[in-house]
Design goal:
Layout: H1 2-27, E1 34-40, H2 51-60, H3 66-77, H4 89-92, H5 101-123, E2 132-137, H6 146-154, E3 161-165, H7 172-186, E4 192-198, H8 211-219, E5 224-230, E6 241-250, H9 255-258, E7 261-265, E8 271-275, H10 279-298, H11 301-312, E9 335-338, H12 343-353, H13 361-370, H14 377-387, E10 396-403, E11 407-415, H15 442-447
Parallel strand pairs: 2-3, 2-4, 9-10
Antiparallel strand pairs: 1-5, 1-6, 4-5, 6-11, 7-8, 10-11
Helix pairs in contact: 1-11, 3-8, 13-14
């Protein structure tokens, strides 16, 4: 009993210190980080990858044997994606084996200016008011930089602080948010920042037959998002979300994790993106460590006490931890935005966090409609929940993403007002169709027989 009292006192003191520090930060207006608006990219209809087109693209690869052909079709069947996802124009046109720099830049420009034009128009903020610009595109670095293209197009101010991030993988958008937060904290005045997050698919299509590299061709789709942020507390009532905490885990010091996913050439010199067999175990370790870091900082004190007592005191007679010691994230989180990296990824996180099917509905529907758009995927999930009018003032939202390196990043947001579906929401034209009780898998219908093949 004395041990229990001591533990409770220590936890209470820690909670009080954390609460006071957090309160002090909230009262410092420039220490805040708000999302005022965001715009997800929806490519034109002619860029949709249907079942038929996906099969044709695979057939075009003359380097594939029967075994590799079946492997790719099995991957498509189990991907969880529908027929309305989008690809770059050069691949749809059959020019994937010889992409040009123009293809890569055109893919980015189409996304940049479609979302940023809408962002400035719908937020009422002028390009000349932007103080910080962060662009993250992992697999494309141009000279001049991608940020310079945006600055030139919109004639932004000479003193705008610009950053181009590459190589960060699917977790890049949360890293960009962290960078913006750090800049806000270093400044002594209100600022506007824009994060532009996407991935370059056009020049990175793998045309070889290495199974560990052709898999990425099935997993990734075109997309992107532009996000407007500010540290101006006077704009709080206009904000959608306020950043409460951001937690970054990097497993790069472990060789196995570092090499689990990376851009490389195969034995024939063909460039592609390698996904190793040890990727699931690396992701699991990074996720476990990230959860350990964020759990004590995002959970209510009542839940922390319950977990601590359960883990330290209530033991089974066999010596194991009692069932009551299980982590209960739903005690402090209202919505979960998971990275839609694939059906298997969603199932694994669902099991780890003990989530219901309703909790993972937004990410499953995002995967089905838009696919895995890399670093921008989380914002399509946000758009889904907002379109469903499920975000109420005071709700707490947890975002979880993974990235090469190997990284697991997460952040906690607070909803600042009841959010209704914007007229320009990315899901506007189809939200009434989701969720469906039985999301049809067109790839299963056409290629399901492959799973029975030897």
């Amino acid at each position: 009993m004395d041990l229990l009292i001591l533990l409770m006192l220590k936890l209470l003191v820690s909670y009080i210190i954390f609460f006071l520090c957090n309160l002090a930060l909230r009262r410092t207006s420039h220490g805040c980080c708000y999302i005022l608006h965001y715009e997800c990219f929806k490519p034109s209809h002619d860029r949709q990858i249907s079942t038929e087109l996906a099969g044709d693209i695979i057939k075009r690869n003359r380097n594939l044997g029967l075994e590799e052909h079946r492997f790719l079709l099995r991957a498509i069947v189990s991907s969880g994606m529908g027929e309305q996802t989008y690809g770059p124009r050069n691949i749809i046109a059959g020019r994937e084996e010889m992409p040009s720099l123009a293809d890569a830049i055109s893919e980015m420009d189409e996304f940049f200016f479609a979302t940023l034009d809408k962002l400035f128009h719908n937020s009422g903020i002028s390009p000349s008011e932007i103080d910080v610009l962060v662009v993250n595109v992992s697999m494309l670095a141009t000279v001049p930089s991608l940020t310079s293209r945006i600055i030139n197009h919109y004639k932004m101010r000479e003193d705008v602080k610009s950053f181009s991030l590459s190589g960060m993988g699917c977790s890049a958008s949360l890293i960009s948010i962290d960078l913006v937060r750090s800049i806000f904290r270093s400044l002594n005045k209100p600022n506007f920042a824009i994060v532009v997050t996407s991935e370059s698919i056009a020049p990175n299509w793998y045309s070889g037959k290495d199974k560990s590299m052709i898999l990425s061709n099935c997993l990734f789709r075109s997309g992107g998002c532009s996000i407007l942020l500010s540290n101006n507390k006077a704009l709080e009532r206009h904000a959608k979300l306020r950043l409460k905490g951001l937690f970054r885990t990097h497993m790069g010091s472990c060789d196995e994790a570092y090499k689990s996913c990376m851009q490389k050439e195969d034995e024939h010199g063909r460039l592609g993106f390698y996904l190793g067999k040890n990727l699931p175990s690396s992701a699991s370790r990074a996720f476990t460590q990230n959860v350990r870091d964020l759990y004590p900082k995002v959970m209510p004190v009542k839940e922390l006490l319950r977990y601590l007592v359960s883990r330290r005191i209530l033991k089974k007679k066999e010596g194991g931890i009692s069932k009551a010691a299980a982590v209960n994230f739903k005690a402090g989180i209202d919505h979960f935005y998971l990275h839609p990296g694939g059906a298997a990824v969603i199932d694994a996180i669902k099991k780890s966090l003990k989530l219901s099917e309703e909790d993972v509905e937004p990410v499953r529907m995002t995967l089905h409609r838009f696919g895995n758009t890399s670093a921008s995927s989380l914002w399509y999930v946000l758009g889904y929940i907002e379109a469903k009018k499920k975000l109420k003032k005071g709700d707490r939202v947890l975002m979880i993403s993974f990235g090469s390196g190997f990284k697991c990043n997460s952040c906690l947001w607070e909803v600042m007002r009841d959010l209704q579906q914007d007229a320009n929401n990315i899901w506007e034209d189809c939200i009434s169709e989701y969720p469906t009780n039985n999301v049809t898998n067109p790839y299963m219908e056409k290629y399901g027989w492959i799973n029975l093949a030897s």
